[in-house]
Amino acid sequence: MSANFLLASLGQLLPIKGVYLGIAEAGIKQSNRKDLLLITLDEDTNVAGVFTQNRFCAAPVIVAKEYLFKDNPRFPIRALIVNTGNANAGTGEEGIAHARSICAELARLLSCDVSQVLPFSTGVIMELLPLEKIISSLPKAVANLKPDNWYAAAQAIMTTDIVPKVISKKILLGGATVTITGVAKGSGMIHPNMATMLGYLATDAALCQPLLQQMVRDVADNSFNRITVDGDTSTNDAFILIATGQAGNVEILNKDSIEYRELEEAVTEVAVYLAKAIVQDGEGATKFITVSVEGGRVLDECAKIAYAIAHSPLVKTAFFASDPNLGRILAAIGYAGVDDLDVRFVQLYLDDVLVVENGKRARNYSEEEGRRVMKKPEITVRVVLNRGKDSTTVWTCDFSYDYIKINSEYRS
Fold it and tell me: How wide is the angle at C-alpha 144 spanned by C-alphas 142 and 150, nearest 5°?
């Protein structure tokens, strides 16, 4: 981790000018637990986002997309409301009505338009929200609003997560000091097709709205879109990027500018940190695995192979057992869908150990070396296709007994 990162602990996280966070205990799934997060924003704050592509997307996703992408600059986004314990997905028109009701009540409390409030939910699917519990707790969240509540915010959006995921970073941008702080949640049902389960990054940099929307898409593609725990895309995924414009830098209006590139690089670093934290906190995970595919003709074939390896239950269980049954990786490469792949040119490495070359087991490879690597808590699987110059990386974890236990008992 670079020196200008601030570790995720209370007192080391940096507030963002123009962002306030409030926490409440609504008792949505259980009592005495933070389960409601309110984020409010100063006027003239820009907000951008990407959402799940699951066709059974949750009611809050439908409402948030409608409000965020509305064509009315008179009503910029002023608040985000997040609940855990209940996903409000698979709830039909009644679920949408509940999401709108929460936004309407919060808009009343904050004296803004209902379309200026974005709703988010995570938790059990196909159950209606406990609407009265949430609405009665909104005043508590408003009363708790503070600029330095980031760690509590990370705790409030957790479901099966074991640890809060939150980080800060500072950079110098055009002579101004710019701060970025972000939180995310996710542990299972992680194979996003846009982002992660829930992620919120804020910066005080000044950046115009169209470029902010471009940045959130690009950042997601290079961070949250490169992780998988179990191959399941959530119904509720959302990744929101906020720019309050209060750092004092000249507003960024040009995507080709040095300032844009530097800001995007910094935001991506924060997002990658959070994305990796989600994988490291994967349900029951004991090992963090980087899958790197190099030498492809096009990016798409590299991604197909990387995800085939990262998704394979047989590969993931072998890593859990530290069993160098690496033919499972070859099988995944072979069925990934690269129809003209010539396996005679493929090389497979486990960390720095050459396992496969010329379409077969490498001459000097031994299972003792494979087992040595697989016992490590962090492992790199490197596939070299030797057919082009494109490459990609995916981060995943192993499957343990606890993954089954956690998910079999999820609603209990």
Answer: 110
Q: Is 160 a catalytic residue?
A: no
CATH number corresponding to 5-280 = 3.60.70.12
Predicted TM-score (pTM) of this structure: 0.90
Sequence spans of domains, the chain: 5-280, 288-408
Q: Which helix (H) or strand (E) segment is 40 a member of?
A: strand 36-41
- Residue 9's identity, in one-letter code, is S
User: d(Cα 153, Cα 156) in Å, to the nearest integer?
Assistant: 5
Catalytic site residue from 40, 181, 196, 396: 196
Q: Provide the β-strand partners of residue 393.
A: 292
Beta strands in 139-276 (DSSP E): 165-173, 176-185, 198-203, 238-243
Round to whole Å and give the CA distance between 6 and 170: 9
pLDDT in tens, the chain (412 residues): 333 444 444 448 999 999 999 999 999 988 889 999 999 999 999 999 999 888 889 999 999 999 999 987 789 999 999 999 999 999 999 999 999 999 999 999 999 999 999 999 998 889 999 999 999 999 999 999 999 999 999 999 998 788 899 999 999 999 999 999 999 997 655 555 544 469 999 999 999 999 999 999 999 999 998 888 755 567 888 999 999 999 999 999 999 999 999 999 999 999 999 999 988 876 668 899 999 999 999 999 999 999 999 989 999 999 999 999 999 999 999 999 999 999 999 999 999 999 999 989 999 999 999 999 999 999 999 999 999 999 999 999 888 877 677 656 555 5
Topology of domain 288-408, per CATH? Ubiquitin-like (UB roll) (3.10.20)
Contact call for residues 296 and 385 (beta carbons, < 8 A): yes
